[in-house]
């Protein structure tokens, strides 16, 4: 006799300041992932916009805002832009390894450098070794950590320059959290490379999508996600492909200097106004 399926119980958090849009508040709905059906539940919830954090699946449930939009890349149709091709070539010597979800001191030290440079004062800035271990190891679903290393010498592993905690779902890879060395000047675009590598891995495995989490229009820190085409977003009518013209406009805005995005053209060294054009 088949055991009955446990319908999950959902809970709602109290409102808190939004980390993406100033002056707004956020609220989340969440449920626990546990038991033999954790993988199945995580996949089902992932398709309707939930994300995983340790043993919890959550999604925004804000009262007066719907700015957080779930997005995913269509892996087998992805075509790299000129800049993305340069990023792939520049980092083609990196050695990627799928590791079991087990936190290491080396990973934690890399995370600390990344947070200090990219997200000082953010919600994860005070994460200690125990918090990091919880993030990586407390997973009730199929997960691994992909490590990215420079070539080593002899039998010694090379320097760890990037890592990503990734969930493997029936329809794709879900990038839970990635981080990288922000201080290597000759490896610009490491964060982009990690995403590009996940797109390749998904396509090679016959998985249709790479889930990037939430895109928030108006939040600078989230605009990198629109650079991968084709991109699908979750709407009230289900998953829909972002129109090419709209995505080109968003990419152009995302790649423009900050002053231009704020409505002030960036002057060149000689005082004239620079012109920016979307490459492809």
TrEMBL record:
It is found in: Cytoplasm. It holds the Pfam family ATE_N. It comes from the Bacteria. Residues 106-234 form the N-end rule aminoacyl transferase C-terminal domain. Residues 17-86 form the N-end aminoacyl transferase N-terminal domain. Residues 250-280 are annotated as: Disordered. SUPFAM superfamilies: Acyl-CoA N-acyltransferases (Nat). GO terms for molecular function: arginyl-tRNA--protein transferase activity. Its EC number is 2.3.2.29. It catalyses: N-terminal L-glutamyl-[protein] + L-leucyl-tRNA(Leu) = N-terminal L-leucyl-L-glutamyl-[protein] + tRNA(Leu) + H(+); N-terminal L-aspartyl-[protein] + L-leucyl-tRNA(Leu) = N-terminal L-leucyl-L-aspartyl-[protein] + tRNA(Leu) + H(+). Keywords: Acyltransferase, Cytoplasm, Transferase. Its main location: cytoplasm. Signal peptide: none annotated. InterPro entries: Acyl_CoA_acyltransferase, Asp_Glu_LeuTrfase, N-end_Aminoacyl_Trfase, N-end_Aminoacyl_Trfase_C, N-end_Aminoacyl_Trfase_N. Belongs to the R-transferase family. Bpt subfamily. Functions in the N-end rule pathway of protein degradation where it conjugates Leu from its aminoacyl-tRNA to the N-termini of proteins containing an N-terminal aspartate or glutamate. HAMAP family: Bpt. This is Aspartate/glutamate leucyltransferase.
């Amino acid at each position: 006799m088949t055991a009955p399926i446990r319908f999950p119980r959902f809970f709602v958090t109290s409102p808190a300041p939004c980390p993406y849009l100033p002056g707004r508040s956020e609220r989340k709905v969440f449920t626990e992932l546990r038991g033999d059906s954790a993988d199945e539940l995580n996949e089902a919830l992932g398709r309707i916009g939930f994300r995983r954090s340790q043993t919890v699946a959550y999604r925004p449930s804000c009262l007066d805002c719907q700015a957080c939009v779930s997005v995913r890349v269509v892996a087998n149709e992805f075509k790299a832009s000129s800049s993305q091709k340069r990023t792939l070539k520049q980092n083609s010597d990196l050695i990627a390894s799928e590791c079991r979800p087990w936190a290491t001191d080396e990973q934690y030290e890399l995370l600390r450098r990344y947070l200090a440079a990219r997200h000082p004062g953010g919600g994860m800035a005070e994460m200690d070794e125990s918090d990091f271990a919880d993030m990586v190891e407390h997973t009730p679903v199929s997960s691994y950590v992909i490590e990215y290393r420079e070539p080593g010498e002899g039998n010694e592993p090379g320097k760890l320059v990037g890592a990503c905690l990734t969930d493997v779902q029936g329809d794709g890879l879900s990038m839970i959290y990635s981080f990288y060395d922000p201080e290597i000047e000759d490896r610009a675009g490491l964060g982009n490379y990690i995403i590009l590598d996940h797109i390749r891995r998904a396509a090679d495995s016959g998985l249709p999508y790479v889930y990037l989490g939430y895109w928030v229009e108006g939040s600078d820190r989230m605009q990198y996600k629109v650079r991968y085409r084709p991109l699908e977003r979750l709407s009230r009518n289900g998953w829909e492909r972002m129109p090419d013209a709209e995505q080109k406009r968003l990419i152009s805005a995302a790649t423009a200097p900050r002053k231009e995005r704020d409505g002030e053209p960036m002057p060149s060294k000689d005082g004239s106004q620079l012109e920016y054009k979307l490459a492809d």
